[in-house]
Amino acid sequence: MSFYTDVIQPDPRFHSPVECRDVALLEHFTRIAVANIIADAKSLGISLIVTETFRSAERQEMLFSQRATQLRTVGTHHYGLACDFAKIIMGAASWAGDWQFLADLAAKHGLVSGLNWNLPGPHGFVDPDHVQRCEVAQQELLFAGEWYPSA
User: Fold this and answer.
1) What 3-state DSSP class applies to 52?
2) CA-angle at 110, arms to 109 and 113, nearest 5°
3) Which residue(s) pair with 52 in the sheet?
4) For position 1, what pLDDT does the model report?
């Protein structure tokens, strides 16, 4: 049993193509880390909002067909292990500017940043407003249903 099978799969939004910002659909450790990241960013003078937590397979396919993502199949969002943010600048959501602060805060709170994926060197895919509780090397096992992080 896991958060994915106990909470996410039975949720009525499991097949919804609608964007989900509900932090209750983040696995417990991920939810705490996200709350701490938001608080730490605020202490740096940066206001963050959650823009997406859980993402269904249907939503992922829709985003792929709109060319809003490079991934056709679900990623770590589908398992309650990822969160996307926006900065609030002058009252509006913004993804502009430097996101290194988020990579630093993600590392501080045990998450992986989409800015660097906890990997050395340059990266072909950069998602600076994204954090996740899954190393890239673990993703294949997660997607195959062979691994889920322990609480």
Assistant:
1) strand
2) 95
3) 84
4) 66
For residue 112, report the phi and psi dihedrals to the nearest 5 degrees.
-100, 135
Closest by CA to 108, choosing from 39, 18, 26, is: 39
Each domain of the chain, given as residue ranges in start order, spans 3-143
Strand partners, 94: 87
DSSP state string for 131-146: EESS-HHHHHHHHTTS
Average pLDDT over residues 45-54: 98
Provide CB contacts within 8 A for 147, sequence distance 6+: 138, 141
CB 31 within 8 A of CB 110: no
d(Cα 92, Cα 108) in Å, to the nearest integer?
Answer: 27
Is the pTM for the entire model greater than 0.90? yes
| 50 bridge partner residues | 85
Does the domain at residues 3-143 carry the CATH identifier 3.30.750.24?
A: no
Contacts of 6 (CB under 8 A, 6+ apart): none
Residue 70 phi/psi, 5-degree rounding, is -90, -10
Are the C-beta atoms of residues 59 and 17 closer than 8 Å to each other? yes
Which stretch of DSSP H or E encloses residue 48? strand 48-52
Strands (DSSP E) found in 65-123: 82-89, 92-94, 112-113
